[in-house]
Amino acid sequence: MDANKEALLIIDYTNDFVADDGALTCGKPGQEIEDYIVNLADNMKENAFIYLPTDIHVKDDPFHPETKLFPIHNQENTWGRELYGKLAPWYQANKSNTVQLMDKTRYSSFAGTNLDILLRERHVDTVHLVGVCSDICVLHTAVDAYNLGYKIVIHEKGIATFTDNGQEWSLNHFKNSLGATIKE
C-alpha cells in the first residue's frame, strides 16, 4: 500500500460546540460548515488519514486550566461530546484504521496525545484542518503543526468560531504567521 501523505483533522465538531443548546456553542456559524466537513471527509477518506481530535473534560477538575475559563463541556459519555449532526453517522459508517476518533484534553490536538506519532508513522507531511473553534482549538493545533514541521491546509469553509472578528483574525494568522494554504 502506498503511504498517504495527508491527514484531515476534524477538530471538536461536537454537540457542545455546535448545537444550539450546546454548553459552549459557536451556534449557526458552526452549523453552517457541517455539509462542507462531511463532504470533505467523504472525498478525502480514500487518500488520506482522517482523525477526529475531540475535547474530553471532567466536571470541576481543579487542575485543568479551562475549568476557570469555560462552562463544563464535552464530558465523557454525554450528548454534548457526541459528534454533531451528519458527522456522527458518517463517522460510524467509516471508522477504521484510517478514520479514528481521538481524545484530547487541551486546545491543541497534539498536546498530550499521540497524534504526532501516528502522523509520522504514516509518513504524513500535510495536515488539513477543519472544525471549531477557528481561533482556539483549530488555531492551537495549527501552531503546533507548524512547530512540528507539517504543511498546513486550512479549509476556510470548514472552520467557524464565535465571532466574525475571531474568524478573520485566525485566517490572517494561519496565512501570514504560519504560512498555511487557505482553501476557500
Comma- or semicolon-separated keywords:
alpha/beta; 184 residues; six-stranded parallel sheet
Order of helices and strands: EHHHEHEHEHEHE
What form results from the Cα inertia axes?
globular
What's the Cα radius of gyration? 15 Å
Described by strand count, sense and barrel closure, the largest sheet is: 6 strands, parallel
User: What's the helix count?
Assistant: 7
Helix content: 25-40%
Please give the order of strands in the largest beta sheet: 3-2-1-4-5-6
The total count of strands amounts to 6
Mean of the pLDDT scores? 94
Give the terminus-to-terminus CA distance. 31 Å
Low-pLDDT stretches: none
Residue share in β-strands = 15-25%
Q: Return the structural class.
A: alpha/beta
Polypeptide structure, described:
- It is a single chain.
- This protein is an alpha/beta fold and 184 residues long.
- 32% of the residues lie in helices and 21% in strands.
- The protein contains seven helices and six strands, in the order E-H-H-H-E-H-E-H-E-H-E-H-E.
- It has a six-stranded parallel β-sheet, sandwiched between helices.
- Strand 4, helix 6 (137-147) and strand 5 (151-160) form a beta-alpha-beta unit.
- The radius of gyration is 15 Å and the shape is globular.
- The mean pLDDT is 94.
